[in-house]
Amino acid sequence: MSDTQAEAPTERTVRVMVVDDHPMWRDAVARDLAAAGYDVVATAGDGPEAVRRAKAAGPDVLVLDLNLPGLPGVAVCKELVGENPALRVLVLSASGEHADVLEAVKSGATGYLLKSASTQELVDAVRRTAAGDPVFTPGLAGLVLGEYRRLAADPAPAAPDEPKAPRLTDRETEVLRLVAKGLSYKQIAERLVISHRTVQNHVQNTLGKLQLHNRVELVRYAIERGLDDA
């Protein structure tokens, strides 16, 4: 576990919240993450409780089941990410159904991991999610990128008086192009020979300029403009 801690994406301990309606599973996940060096700041067993506690605890990463009483996981994700775009959400679900995966991503989830994953895979997925990287159970990443492309092929018509898109710097455009190609922040940093934190800053600046809320919307924006083929 020491290797995992050494690779933590920030100087401080990553704050994690675990949401699942099965107490034994929820406690086991929270225990495993705490043992790996994460700061488990809260847990919750239903949707409304998850929203309340997340807003109070301020986690960096939300490990979220989709099947929750009171309020579905996708609704929890959409509300919390809408209010705090910096929040990273890793869905941990028993369902590998494509519709569930795509709905979770569209609601703002950064990644999607099946509950069949090992403890080490979960620990690594939380680390990567905290760093802003998209994390998917093998086989699902291609599905999500394919959906991005489908959405981009049929974009909503622009209004005649729609304002001109904000101007991005050359570096922001370069980072956006690599994000659209599916590269992780770490890979982008290595490609451009800049720090991981600098990549994150460029992405946050771009989100602000374009008035977008998360990486999902950012990738769609980039693909609509053909940046993934540039």
Q: Your description of this structure?
A:
This is DNA-binding response regulator. Keywords: DNA-binding, Phosphoprotein. Residues 161-226 form the HTH luxR-type domain. Residues 15-130 form the Response regulatory domain. The structure is a single chain. The chain has 230 residues and is α/β, with parallel strands linked by helices. The chain has helices spanning 2-6, 23-35, 47-57, 73-83, 98-106, 119-130, 140-153, 170-180, 185-192, 196-210, 215-224, and strands spanning 15-19, 39-44, 61-64, 88-93, 111-114, 135-136. Helices cover 52% and strands 12% of the residues. The protein has a six-stranded parallel beta sheet, with helices on both faces. Helix 6 links the parallel strand 5 (111-114) and strand 6. The longest helix has 15 residues, at 196-210. The radius of gyration is 17 Å and the shape is globular. The termini are far apart.
Q: How many separate helices? A: 11
Average predicted local confidence, pLDDT? 82
**Structural class given helices, strands, pairing?**
alpha/beta
Alpha carbon gap, first and last residue: 40 Å
Largest sheet: 6 strands, parallel
Number of strands: 6
Main-sheet strand order equals 2-1-3-4-5-6
Shape summary: globular
Modified residues (4-aspartylphosphate): 65
Keywords: DNA-binding, Phosphoprotein
Domain HTH luxR-type: 161-226
Domain Response regulatory: 15-130
